[in-house]
Amino acid sequence: MAFKKSTGQQLACKIVDLRALKNKVIREAEDQQSRHFKESTFPHSKNRLLVIRAFKESLQRKIQGRLDVYSREARILESLCHPNIIRIEKVIESSNTIYLFQELVTAGDLFSYIQYKGGKLDDIEAAVIVRQVLMALDYLHQRGIVHRDLKPDNILMTSLADGCRVVLTDFGCARLVRPTIERMSTLIGTFDYSAPEMLKSKQGYTKAVDLWSLGCVAAVLLTGDIPFKNSLTAHPTDLSRERDLEKLEADMDWNRIGQRARDFVRKLLVFDETKRIDVKQALNHNWHLAQWPMSAKLLVMRQK
């Protein structure tokens, strides 16, 4: 917790201990080394020295990679200004610590809010939340930024009232994609919400992964359950995920949801990324166009 001196405004302060982070990376690497690097494996001292040198170089790259995550998050957030994206007030970096002073959001995350509401939301309230996240994604994608870890835990609630403002947070996995780079390849994010092309790292992926994740979030809002579970440990294929979708669509709770909402989710959870709707198409989907007059009124009332 911190205070902005000029206004007295309360801020959240995220503290990154770089020294502890480095030590954690070193411990992880040494544990891995102890499992694979044995005296008997390398009888010749020359081979052993080469392996030790390679290990040290790899360790340095890992340390720098972890540090870059926090620096990148700070740089990205400093460049953004949108009501549905966490606001950074100030970033202070020292040799051993990074301090991120950001907007204080006190009502918890979306996952907790779903539990508070009894496990799922009705169509209108779900539409209000999804549309706000879409507006944040539209803003990001226009600026070449891909979030890559969209999930209920990374969406914060400004209050527990229906129609409240929601805020997208945690940009540790976010990436600024230059116009010359069309596809990304890093396996990152939360696997239960990861698009199928993200798990096929050879072909790479685009900003369309954020739309798949939003489809998963929308399904959680409407049904109270994640459509795809344990995606990494189960080594999912498109066929296994298609079966998960079939189970979802056969569920009685799913069929109680409005047809427009179901169609919206299904157009996001498309395995071929080239056929998945983009942010603009999602914003113009008839689920939002039909609900928007009522949901917009609710949103405005709650934000006054």
From TrEMBL:
InterPro entries: Kinase-like_dom_sf (IPR011009), Prot_kinase_dom (IPR000719), Ser/Thr_kinase_AS (IPR008271). It comes from the Eukaryota. Keywords: Kinase, Transferase. This is Ca2+/calmodulin-dependent protein kinase, EF-Hand protein superfamily. Gene3D superfamilies: Phosphorylase Kinase, domain 1 (3.30.200.20), Transferase(Phosphotransferase) domain 1 (1.10.510.10). Residues 1-288 form the Protein kinase domain. GO terms for molecular function: ATP binding; protein kinase activity. Pfam families: Pkinase (PF00069).
